[in-house]
Amino acid sequence: MSKPSSKSKEFFIDIDDETQNVNQQSGYVWEEEYKRSWDVLQEDEDGSLKRSIDHLQNRLKRKRLLRDTSTIRRGIIRNMFLIIDLSEAMMEKDLRPSRLDLTLSYAEQFILEFFDQNPISQLGIIVSKGGVAERLTGLSGNPMDNIIALKNKKNIDVDGEPSLQNSLELARSSLIHTPTHGSREILLIMGSLTSCDPGDIYESIEDLVKDNVRVSIVGLSAEVQICKYICKRTKGTYGVVLNEAHFKDLLFEIIPPPPVSVAQSNSKLVMMGFPSSVNQSSPYLCACHNKPVTSGYTCARCNSNICDIPTECPICELTLVSSPHLARSYHHLFPVENYTEVPWNSATTTHCFACQISFPSLSERTLPKNLETSSGRYNCQKCNQHFCIDCDVFVHEAIHNCPGCLATSQNNLKSLMGQVNGNFENYENYEKMNLS
Amino acid sequence: MSSIKDSVTVNEDDANLLVLIIDTNQMNWTKVANKQAMGNCLTLQQILRQLLAFINAHLALKHDNEVAVIASHIGVSKFLYPIPTTRQKTRRSHGDSDQSSNSNMYQRFRVIDDQVTSNMKALFENEALKSCPDKVSSMMAGALSLALCYINRITKSDEIGHIKSRILIISVSPDSPYQYISIMNCIFSAQKLGIPIDVCKISESDNSVFLQQASHITGGRYLRLSIDQSRGFLHFLMKTFLPDRFVRRHLCLPGDEKVDFGAACFCHKKTINIGYVCSVCLSIYCQQLEECSTCRSKVTNGVKRSKTNESL
Ligand SMILES: [Zn+2]
Ligand SMILES: [Zn+2]
Ligand SMILES: [Zn+2]
Ligand SMILES: [Zn+2]
């Protein structure tokens, strides 16, 4: 059993040194040294601990934030299978409340967030137990169908050993039918250290490589050589969980669309339908669930009734979206650049530009000696406004707009946005789309 | 799409934070005033007076209700209230207002009224902004971003989840196409945080497509007032936008119609039902093309499945 190596460099585009250091410092929960956590905290001159606690918290918040904002293309349209190990190893209680319960609740959060960030993508679920793999849901664009399948107690009994090969083959056989403009991905949550495979798994791995399927694995117990090999061969990521929070981090790293290699510079034009909504006084049956509904959408091609979009028409298989769904993905194309930390000698501002909270002033700088001091200000290099740590996190994780750039006298907003991604010369196109 | 916003539970005794975004583009307010029949001109000044009455009404509803006011101006968006001031400054402004305004007025109303009015005055007197070339639109995306950051801060500092926020936009300017992406980003994060965006649009004929989407997606109210109706501006504000999120569930408020988001192709700007979407940049076209005109990537024929091009 080897110690989980922190994510290896060649597969991760957006690695920053700080994250890596933090990962190396902390090991398994039970390996952690007995830490006298109160030694780290020191009182300030008023006898208050608040400031030094805040300081520690800020460093943690920022750790997760630094993202890759370079202008790489990302595969916006994704097809993903989530494979969940339902072997007896999942009943272990080293993650609380148990590996299985935690996996199921994180899987639910993962699915919601996945569809929020990738609205025109598709996801299906496969479970593996007793040496076989079983498909719970096929690829679909509906988060609720997937979550309901996971909530069904009948689907989540544990039994025997998982089968790595069977589940990968099952996922692959469904993924090869997806059109080539979308990415093909597998995310595997693996609790067991063993696998029950019917044949040569290396052959299956070569098939996955041939079909451009990217496999990422999150291990719950220890690093397994074959898992590492699969991820390396298929250009996915492999991580082993240290504790509950790290589990979530590893899962949620999969949510932003993956970068597309430069070689794939060609695009495809995908046919999509923009359905019109209908409201009727008397209920009718929807084509997707055969349930009576009174409002919904009609497919733009075959006029069948659908209850919600985005989805694929169950009758004619046309992808049905609305323009706001497409707009939801635009922030992947135009990310906000990382803010830089402002050193004390240029900390002239008194309050955060966005939320108006006041910054610590130079006179309040006194901090415990064993902590490096931070001015609490973060600077946008485009508009040179200063923001607090909370706004920094919020801007990059939620809004995806720099409030400073949008709120200050920017006569050339257009040129500014154009710089974000040199590829998008006709940026205005987007903006006109909803004006007609 | 509504699964997230329903997860926020509102209670009767919640405190309400109202973030009011006022479009202060003088150009467009002048247009509104000019269109009106002589004698009953509705100027920005009158609107402001009615808005202050509305703010006071909001604060009077509950002792712990809060308000923030942001101006979406030509070329800049700015907080009008609250603004961080040094201690002496606040004292001085109190001294000023004691003489000028009614001393019978409730202290809190007066502080807010004075600050909003004086900050707005300062905004109009700012010479630098007068040279801004784009005089037609206002910085709505910036104002929305500021509002969301402020709400994020207030929500974070309130650990028991007692404060429920909402945004009200008073808009008079037409949509600025350059702000489409940033406004949409704001809308989606508001939806995720469960913050309804209410919109009051004062315009003779045009609806604001962006803001209509904002209120539709976030579960807010959209109300368009024609210029004649806007004489009863305060009345509409009170009846439509004053009820808090708890009370709204029991009310039948105007402006709850379904909005259709038709898509228009980038090439001819015509509305389409079925279109072709570029898999790299999500541009919409009404026909197959050789090259995507937005991201300049070559389009491979959808029929031939050339696996050599795919390297994922
Ligand atoms: Zn159809
Ligand atoms: Zn801030
Ligand atoms: Zn900026
Ligand atoms: Zn394109």
UniProtKB/TrEMBL annotation, chain A:
GO biological process: DNA-templated transcription; nucleotide-excision repair; regulation of transcription by RNA polymerase II
Statement: the UniProt record of this protein carries the keyword DNA repair: yes
Record flagged with keyword Zinc-finger: yes
Segments forming domain VWFA: 79-221
Subcellular localization: Nucleus
Zinc finger (C4-type): 299-316
GO molecular function, one term: zinc ion binding
Entry GO terms, CC: transcription factor TFIIH core complex; transcription factor TFIIH holo complex
Keywords: DNA damage, DNA repair, Metal-binding, Nucleus, Transcription, Transcription regulation, Zinc, Zinc-finger
Family under the similarity heading: Belongs to the GTF2H2 family.
Known function: Component of the general transcription and DNA repair factor IIH (TFIIH) core complex, which is involved in general and transcription-coupled nucleotide excision repair (NER) of damaged DNA and, when complexed to TFIIK, in RNA transcription by RNA polymerase II.
Entry protein name: General transcription and DNA repair factor IIH
Native source organism of the sequence: Diversispora epigaea
From TrEMBL, chain B:
GO terms, molecular function: zinc ion binding
Keywords associated with the record: DNA damage, DNA repair, Metal-binding, Nucleus, Transcription, Transcription regulation, Zinc, Zinc-finger
Keyword Zinc in annotation: yes
Subcellular locations according to the entry: Nucleus
GO cellular component: transcription factor TFIIH core complex; transcription factor TFIIH holo complex
Pfam family for this entry, one: Tfb4
Superkingdom of the organism of origin: Eukaryota
Keyword Transcription regulation attached: yes
A single BP term in Gene Ontology: regulation of DNA-templated transcription
Family in the record: Belongs to the TFB4 family.
Main function: Component of the general transcription and DNA repair factor IIH (TFIIH) core complex, which is involved in general and transcription-coupled nucleotide excision repair (NER) of damaged DNA and, when complexed to TFIIK, in RNA transcription by RNA polymerase II. In NER, TFIIH acts by opening DNA around the lesion to allow the excision of the damaged oligonucleotide and its replacement by a new DNA fragment. In transcription, TFIIH has an essential role in transcription initiation.
Summary of subunit composition and partner proteins: Component of the 7-subunit TFIIH core complex composed of XPB/SSL2, XPD/RAD3, SSL1, TFB1, TFB2, TFB4 and TFB5, which is active in NER. The core complex associates with the 3-subunit CTD-kinase module TFIIK composed of CCL1, KIN28 and TFB3 to form the 10-subunit holoenzyme (holo-TFIIH) active in transcription.
Name of the protein described by the UniProt record: General transcription and DNA repair factor IIH subunit TFB4
Organism encoding this protein: Diversispora epigaea
Upper classification of the organism: Eukaryota, Fungi, Fungi incertae sedis, Mucoromycota, Glomeromycotina
